[in-house]
Amino acid sequence: MQAGDMMEVLQQRLMEVQSRIERAAKKSGRSSQDITLLAVSKTVDNATVAQAYDLGIRDFGENRVQEFASKIHSLPQARWHIIGRLQTNKVKDVVGRAFLIHSVDRWSLAQEIDKRGQYMEVPVPVLLQVNISGEESKTGLQADEVENFLQSVGELNSLKVMGFMTIAVLSSEPEESRPIFQELVALKNKLGRKNFTNVELKYLSMGMSQDYEIAIEEGANIVRIGSALFI
Ligand SMILES: *Cc1c(COP(=O)(O)O)cnc(C)c1O
User: Fold this and answer.
1) At 32, is the pLDDT very low, low, confident or very high (cuts 50, 70, 90)?
2) Is residue 208 part of a domain?
3) Atom 6 in ligand 1: which residue has the minimum CA distance?
4) Which CATH number characterizes residue 46's domain?
5) Fewer C-beta within 10 Å: the chain N or C terminus?
6) Which residue has its alpha carbon closest to ligand 1 atom 7?
7) How many independent structural domains does the chain possess?
8) What are the tens digits of pLDDT across the range 120-162?
9) Protein residue with least CA distance to atom 12, ligand 1
10) Is the CB of 161 under 6 A from ligand 1?
């Protein structure tokens, strides 16, 4: 395909996604302004990312640090998020550059991020990845570990927990994701009533191409969308 045709396809897909976001937001009594569309660009090149930016997308997500580093270099004016499992030895390439790290799933990682944040003298906003679906293949904290984790975050200096992220089930039936999203919302509501230092439960990052409308209906304010946008 020619670059111009590609852009047209992307624009059509973006309009479709945006109108679905709007509809789902209305259903949950919100406006689409309250929802961040995070375009997951892991399958596309820098030129496509630049087109997406030109069409108005401002937030991009990558799950590999090397790809993150090269894409951020090509489009530094966008907000770049890390959404995949983060190895401790890659933390230095992410802190100070990522707008938000969605995938803090263990205490040793939180400590490493905090250490780097202190060294660079920057606050580091993160989400805790919670494994609600209970699938062993999925990383993330178990729901019953989250409260203790939030307590411990008070000992850190740079790391700030801004909410939770979850990946629902991979299934042909998107409705199967709904109870998982509801559980994460319930956890946020329950823990949001308590006072933790370095914690502000503001974001819920949940919903992907196949189930983002359901996630928004249940309260997501960041949806991570790859294949519904990019070919
Ligand atoms: C790839 C990926 C997505 C996007 O998935 P799609 O089904 O293509 O929308 C969202 N979140 C994470 C963590 C991913 O790795």
Assistant:
1) very high
2) yes
3) 226
4) 3.20.20.10
5) N
6) 209
7) 1
8) 999 999 999 999 977 766 689 999 999 999 999 999 999 999 9
9) 83
10) no
